[in-house]
Amino acid sequence: MGGKAVIVVHSGDMDKIYSALIIGNGALSMGLEASLYFTFWGLQRLKKGGLEAGPLSKMHMLGLGKWMVKKRMQKANVASLEKLMQDYKELGGRIIACEMTMEIMGIKKEELHTEWIDDYGAVGTYIHEAKDASITLFI
Amino acid sequence: MWKWGDNIATIEIDVRGQTCPVPLVECRKALRKASPGDEVVVTGTHPASKKEIPMACESLGLDVLAVEDKGKEWKIRIRR
Questions:
Q1: What is the DSSP track for A19-58?
Q2: For residue A32, which residues of chain B lie inside 8 Å, CB to CB?
Q3: Is B27 a catalytic residue?
Q4: Which of B20, B22, B56 faces A30 most closely, judged by CB atoms?
């Protein structure tokens, strides 16, 4: 069939990173290409040890809400973000890191999971990727 | 493309108890590893995946040979 899903991952919230990786994996599983463009708070999640470190977007309650949601997720046998990222890469999903965010936030390449990242770019890279995409989302 | 005389393997994957998006992802991983003509058999319990795995097969241009139910479990047979 073909087609492509391109998602801007602006949020670094744990639940929204789940949404991005689940949709990305879903697209790849259904035979589409997928690109995730990590920028701003989203880019923090590509730091080493950062993937699972985001707060909950609502009811975080200094970590108590996140802890409760994680417990519920474990009970429901929801995959970890680490597994979703591994599957995403195994199925050929692309990851793009926003260079401007790296500059603003003083993030160096060596602080990031460079093995996940296919490209470093700016808005032109996103538009180039998204212009022929059938699905594009901002999370 | 599969031809008469090629060896056909059956690849079984068990995603019972797994939830979204794992059944779909594991099915896709198995299909990528399978050779044309092979049969991939997915066993699971996640209700939405029973509908969505055939949708994925349609979009991948693959034939679903059978969808079987046994209580809460389902089994989907796909020809790679």
A1: HHHHHHHHHHHTT-EEEEEE-HHHHHTTBTT-TT-PPPSS
A2: 59
A3: no
A4: B56
- The fold of the B10-79 domain, in CATH, is Translation Initiation Factor IF3 (3.30.110)
Boundaries of every domain in chain B: 10-79
Q: Cβ separation of A90 and B19 shorter than 8 Å?
A: no
For residues B31 and B40, the answer to whether their CB atoms sit within 8 Å is yes
Number of structural domains chain A divides into: 1
Domain that holds residue A99: 4-138
Is this complex's ipTM strictly greater than 0.90? no
Indicate if the pLDDT at residue B6 is higher than 90. Answer: no
Rounded to 5°, the CA angle A17-A23-A26 comes to 140
**Cβ distance A10 to A98 under 8 Å?**
no
Closest Cα in chain B to A90: B29
Query: Model confidence over B38-60: pLDDT tens digits?
Result: 999 999 999 999 999 999 999 99
Q: If you search the block for the tokens 């690849």, which residue do you land on?
A: B11
How far apart, in whole angstroms, are the C-alpha atoms of residue B17 and residue A132?
A: 37
Query: Inter-chain contact A30–B60, Cβ cutoff 8 Å?
Result: yes
User: Looking at beta carbons, which residues of chain B come within 8 Å of A90?
Assistant: 29
Joined tokens for residue A102: 């790296």
Q: State the CATH number of the domain containing residue A78.
A: 3.40.1260.10
